[in-house]
Amino acid sequence: MKPTLDTAWAVQWLRLAAKVIAENRMALIELDRVIGDGDHGENMDRGFSAVLTKLDAEPPATPGAAFKLVAMTLMSKVGGAAGPLYGTAFLRAASAVGDAAELDSNTLAAALAAARDGVVARGKASVGEKTMIDAWTPAVDAASAAAASGATPAALLAAAATAAEAGSVSTDPLIARKGRASYLGERAIGHRDPGSVSSALILRAAAQAAGEGA
Amino acid sequence: MKPTLDTAWAVQWLRLAAKVIAENRMALIELDRVIGDGDHGENMDRGFSAVLTKLDAEPPATPGAAFKLVAMTLMSKVGGAAGPLYGTAFLRAASAVGDAAELDSNTLAAALAAARDGVVARGKASVGEKTMIDAWTPAVDAASAAAASGATPAALLAAAATAAEAGSVSTDPLIARKGRASYLGERAIGHRDPGSVSSALILRAAAQAAGEGA
Amino acid sequence: MKKLINDPKTVVDESVEGFGQAHAGHVRVHTDPLFVTRKDAPRAGKVGLISGGGSGHEPLHAGYVGYGMLDAAVPGPMFTSPTPDAIIPATIAANAGAGVVHIVKNYTGDVLNFETAAEMAEAEGVSVRTVLVNDDVAVEDSLYTAGRRGVAGTVLVEKIAGAAAERGDDLDGVAAIGQRVNDNVRSMGVALSACTVPHAGVPSFELAEDEIEIGIGIHGEPGRHKIPMENADAITQRLLEPILSDLAPAAGERVLLFVNGMGGTPASELYIVYRHAAKVLEAAGLIVERSLVGNYITALEMQGCSISVLRLDDEMIELWDAPVNTPALRWGM
Amino acid sequence: MKKLINDPKTVVDESVEGFGQAHAGHVRVHTDPLFVTRKDAPRAGKVGLISGGGSGHEPLHAGYVGYGMLDAAVPGPMFTSPTPDAIIPATIAANAGAGVVHIVKNYTGDVLNFETAAEMAEAEGVSVRTVLVNDDVAVEDSLYTAGRRGVAGTVLVEKIAGAAAERGDDLDGVAAIGQRVNDNVRSMGVALSACTVPHAGVPSFELAEDEIEIGIGIHGEPGRHKIPMENADAITQRLLEPILSDLAPAAGERVLLFVNGMGGTPASELYIVYRHAAKVLEAAGLIVERSLVGNYITALEMQGCSISVLRLDDEMIELWDAPVNTPALRWGM
Ligand SMILES: Nc1ncnc2c1ncn2[C@@H]1O[C@H](COP(=O)(O)OP(=O)(O)O)[C@@H](O)[C@H]1O
Ligand SMILES: Nc1ncnc2c1ncn2[C@@H]1O[C@H](COP(=O)(O)OP(=O)(O)O)[C@@H](O)[C@H]1O
Ligand SMILES: [Mg+2]
Ligand SMILES: [Mg+2]
Ligand SMILES: [Mg+2]
Ligand SMILES: [Mg+2]
């Protein structure tokens, strides 16, 4: 396993993310239909399709440039709550990695934390409010722990994805306090938050791009 | 069997007609829903309910007055195609019987013919066009034959009702050429004309009021 | 059946009562018999214009009572023509001495009831002319039917004849322009779902999940034929073909394009139909000079639409553009 | 799912294109990114007023672009907030130097996207004020939710703030009157059926044949709770109670009563609701001074309605009555 990840990884991540979002388009729509307005899969798929086009048209030169590209594309194509939140997340990650050509585990952990902080800054959600933060915060914690223990970037991303997946599952019994599902009160109980699912899918794609299987 | 029918018969006829129309309200709606606009039972029931109220408020002094009462009430309460047609029918019947206190078989046959001619004058339908005329014309023919053969009024009305019922059944295989069902073309085939059914019900009530069972 | 009603028997009365309250600035509601007049009817010297028919087509007709359109409207029971005892007082209320034009949609019931009312109003000294609207090209062979139905073209007849009455045309003149509009308009409709008449309680016809009904009227009656569901552009084409072949407008002629919602179709879909209809008309060399898009003559909550094309001339355009101030159609004032 | 569309992916673009053609006298449609402006925008000296949000609520917002109301509207994808890359050019197009007011319905997505756009427009030298509409009393405890949603009150905010901008109020003044309308309006909705978003293809929630959903928003999201079907008067009462208890108007106050259709409900039913709502308000000692009844902010083909009550003052009445000339709301000109 390599000690750093490069632009090729970043581009591969985004391609895999686009693929898995497209594959899960209807599943995300269905989750959002039950406790939201049924557009999350459509929104994310529209956004990541545009990311693919952009990647072909203007191949990024650094991982940071790739993150900035996806940030601007999601911001302008996704709409709804998820668009600005994911947009801010990738924009902050881009700032965190700067112009670096190679990202080591510490930088990756810092980038994930910056992304999460960006979502919190915009959406003001904390853990337990049944949003994508319930996937992001455990992922950030797992990434920090992995970086501290000297894990490779690939192992770090795998740990983050696994934590995000568990975090997403943990939204099932919750009442939502933020976003559209919050209007439902107790009727949201028993349903998974769609944004936490898309977050986990995207983080899993990052690990896969780094060479870690599902 | 009495050789003539009086005002009590006329009133009893209208009461029985109101009853049977109310009982068949949904059946007539259903017939009209299939090849029309689903209001025939509602329209007729609204009209005959009003007839009952009028009969209580202003008891008619002669059979002709009863016919006039029902004519004016149906004209102003039924609406649709059936209202003016039945209204005209009873108005012509009223003219045909004049001020007579007792109606014999010849007068009854003439009254029925006048009623039918009124419907034709307004609606321009001939036999075979899948309208109430397909019930009325056989009824008129049966009544004339009965009168010619010296039948009692009760027997005459029973023969007319039976002919109307057969006439109504005869509308099943027809394509409609008049009224709303005419828009359906071949799709009207296999369905009974609702106006012919209500006509047969009303004529059967006349026979029952004269002492003839169903 | 789920409806925002209290009782099928009181739907029309309560609805018209609410309508009268919400539009007290425009109209006055008369009860027993039920009819609606312009608040300021009759207007001295002006020809009166009235229409009526079964309820369930709102905003038709009461929504068009007001300046520049109808002087009175007579709402019948649900999908059932009103009776002469309501049409007669409405006719009298609309008469300012210059006579009254009846705009009647061609259905046996409407024709017979308005005919009776006209006779009786004439007997009371009111001159009446009748314009019979029969714009529905879905009814193919009028020799073997009750004839073409009056559908969405009615709104255009009421607007344009109403403007003629407002500018002071005489009785025959108002009737003539109404007739001219009818002669130059054709319509055709499609249903994606049926509607449910409150007193019937079940849908007026059945459509499978992938079927649509082409050539429907406005009473939930079945149409020309069922076909499998198609996309909006294909349906639009299908509706326009019989309209154009019957109206046969020459290239370069100006038309009004009217896409009407049946009550349960979102406005966004009507605009998708409009978009393609305008393309088809332009490809046929026609000039779409005026437009109308929305729920103007409905069949309760039916999903679907109708398209109408009216061949315009200078006078019709002038009368179309003239100020109108009714609850459902308003511009210029 | 049966809809008059060609492809779920092109619904919004094609619909807005058709809308632009049908109302070419009022609006101009800009594509890529998609937004709609007044034909004569920007109007020298006038504060610009813009709004936007997910599509599927037609005629909101593009239907309110025109004299006396909005200078621009930004239609997002179906039920999905538009993005800053469309909101920014719309803001710039609406700016005549006097600044722009954003009217934003309170949903996380709308708030975040308009917030971003406002920041970026400010960076380009446009002064922006935001009026957040949150009139939906169905959302009970805003401490534990994303806060009250913006629903039908939006139409009233747009009309009244639009009239203030048209008469020449400055940026803070227009924002202040918009805020005042929001502070004085409360709404609550009911659904008899769900709606189907084209790209989802199935209804947004399930309702049994004898169930209705109380407290719904305008996105097909479920509401406060399901209850067994009731008659129109009982439902009306149920919707008005939380409105009145929250707005707490004093006897003798004047109100505007707005009964809004969700897209699939016949006008006749809306008037039945209006009738009883007016009774309830009058029984509470209120004066129903102005009314609005119809499909003004919808949820596709959903069956149901919302009721809004706006507490009026003299200035709001004057601005409400002021001339407006848009595709969907027009009077006085
Ligand atoms: N305030 C918030 N903070 C963090 N995440 C949020 C917030 N509000 C909503 N979300 C996330 O956004 C997702 C919904 O996104 P999407 O359906 O695309 O937008 P919308 O709700 O506008 O339709 C939710 O599942 C949730 O994870
Ligand atoms: N021209 C006509 N002549 C005779 N009967 C007719 C004619 N048109 C319609 N009818 C009769 O009227 C009946 C329909 O009445 P109804 O449903 O009450 O009126 P509408 O068709 O206006 O809804 C038909 O079943 C038919 O028997
Ligand atoms: Mg959503
Ligand atoms: Mg009928
Ligand atoms: Mg009828
Ligand atoms: Mg959304």
TrEMBL record, chains A, B:
A Pfam family this chain is assigned to: Dak2
Gene3D superfamilies hit by this protein: 1.25.40.340
Keyword Kinase belongs to the record: yes
GO biological process: glycerol catabolic process
Keywords, alphabetical: Kinase, Transferase
Keyword Zinc: no
Taxonomy, superkingdom: Bacteria
Gene Ontology CC terms: cytosol
GO molecular function: glycerone kinase activity
Coiled-coil spans in chain: none
Full protein name: Dihydroxyacetone kinase subunit L
Source organism per UniProt: Arthrobacter psychrochitiniphilus
TrEMBL record, chains C, D:
Reaction(s) catalysed (UniProt annotation): dihydroxyacetone + phosphoenolpyruvate = dihydroxyacetone phosphate + pyruvate
Pathways involved: Polyol metabolism; glycerol degradation
Residue ranges constituting the DhaK domain according to the UniProt record: 7-331
InterPro entries, alphabetized: DhaK_1 (IPR012736), DhaK_dom (IPR004006), Dihydroxyacetone_Kinase (IPR050861)
The entry's keywords: Glycerol metabolism, Kinase, Transferase
GO biological process, one term: glycerol catabolic process
Record GO terms (molecular function): glycerone kinase activity; phosphoenolpyruvate-glycerone phosphotransferase activity
Domain of life: Bacteria
Transmembrane segments: none
Position of the signal peptide: none
Pfam families per UniProt: Dak1
EC number of this enzyme: 2.7.1.121
GO terms under cellular component: cytosol
NCBIfam families hit by this protein: dhaK1
Oligomeric and partner information: Homodimer. The dihydroxyacetone kinase complex is composed of a homodimer of DhaM, a homodimer of DhaK and the subunit DhaL.
Name of the protein: phosphoenolpyruvate--glycerone phosphotransferase
Classification of source organism: Bacteria, Bacillati, Actinomycetota, Actinomycetes, Micrococcales
